[in-house]
Write a structure and sequence with these properties.
It is a single chain. With about 180 residues, the protein is α+β, with helices and mostly antiparallel strands. It folds into 2 domains: about 100 residues, Topoisomerase I, Chain A, domain 4 (Orthogonal Bundle); about 70 residues, Gyrase A, domain 2 (2-Layer Sandwich), CATH 3.30.1360.40. About 55% of the residues lie in helices and about 15% in strands. It has 4 helices and 6 strands. The strands form 2 sheets. It has a 4-stranded antiparallel β-sheet with strand order 3-4-6-5, covered by helices on one side. It has a two-stranded antiparallel sheet with strand order 1-2. A hairpin with a 4-residue loop joins strand 5 and strand 6. Helix 1 packs parallel to helix 4. The radius of gyration is 22 Å and the shape is elongated.
């Protein structure tokens, strides 16, 4: 691999780690109703595990309530069952047309647990970014050994990989801090 391919691959993989964190943080409760809270709940829909966002419109008409309006009214019971069995701790009410979820305010202890969970998610993604750095540095070493990169180019490439790592770790930290502040509001 030449230097540009190594850098492009590393940057793409680090970007995926940051996007993964963003997706996981959306699913954490903050005490306010947000469609992201339930949109990735998987529902057994005719034998296929389907994300809720593909089966229904999800809206937050009030600060503490979510309304789920399925495209297929026959899926109401399946959606209700999936929400009850998820780890969200929310009790759906089904009126035959829509499902309403009352999102209660969080206690101080619940908030601390969610902050810890957010930190855990962030650490997982920082580890992923470091693994990408390790892989990129191995590619640089291999390319140097194979004569594709000179010693100076290899050293510069490793420095560039380290800068990318710092950049993405900073982005991950920023996402986690933002979510923690949102949870503790």
């Amino acid at each position: 691999m030449d230097r540009d391919e190594i850098m492009l691959d590393a940057e793409e993989r680090m970007e995926k780690a940051a996007e993964t964190l963003k997706g996981r943080l959306v699913g954490l409760r903050t005490g306010r109703a947000a469609p992201g809270l339930v949109e990735n709940v998987r529902v057994d829909y005719y034998g296929t595990m389907t994300p809720l966002k593909q089966m229904a419109n999800i809206s937050a008409p009030e600060a503490q309530m979510l309304v789920i309006r399925p495209f297929d009214a026959g899926a109401l019971k399946d959606i209700e069952k999936a929400i009850r069995s998820s780890d969200l701790g929310l009790a759906p009410t089904n009126d035959g047309k829509v499902i309403r979820l009352n999102v209660p305010s969080l206690s101080g202890e619940q908030r601390k647990k969610l902050v810890a969970k957010a930190k855990e998610y962030a650490e997982d993604q920082r580890v992923a970014v470091r693994n990408v750095r390790r892989d990129a540095n191995k590619h640089v070493d291999t390319s140097e050994k194979d004569g594709i990169l000179s010693e100076d180019d290899a050293k510069a490439a490793k420095e560039e990989v380290q800068e990318l790592t710092k950049k993405f770790e900073g982005r991950i930290n920023e996402l986690a801090e933002k979510k923690n502040a949102e949870i503790m509001e």
